[in-house]
């Protein structure tokens, strides 16, 4: 759950996204998965992120261009989709999809999956 008592939910989501990307870039899948409250993807979390052999997940401080969407915001929450980029330019980034559900002053983080962008 993400506490939103002192930060706007969209800003909290952007902060979540950058921290998530840094954990993926470090290939610390256990730490990335620990940021998620519910896995709604229908698959094991770690199986969706291949071992970086022949490519490199891009850390946030190396991202040159990045796409981050807040979609379908309402009183129940919103969807948040963002790119999971690679350092190598020849690889298209993946798209991580999340649903953020308002529960009081917190956001429940629901992982919906990783898809090609």
Query: Structural class, from helix and strand content?
Result: alpha+beta
Report strand %: 25-35%
Q: Could you state the order of secondary-structure elements as H and E?
A: EHHEEEEE
Mean pLDDT: 95
Number of helices: 2
Low-confidence segments? none
How many β-strand stretches? Answer: 6
Indicate the percent of residues in helices. 10-25%
Specify Rg, calculated over alpha carbons.
Answer: 14 Å
**Gross geometry:** globular
Distance between the first and last residues' Cα:
27 Å
Please outline the major beta sheet: 6 strands, mixed
Describe this structure in words.
It is a single chain. This protein has helices spanning 9-25, 29-34, and strands at 2-3, 38-39, 68-74, 77-84, 94-103, 106-116. It is globular. It is α+β, with helices and mostly antiparallel strands. The model has no long low-confidence stretch (mean pLDDT 95). Strands 1, 2, 3, 4, 5 and 6 form a six-stranded mixed β-sheet that branches.
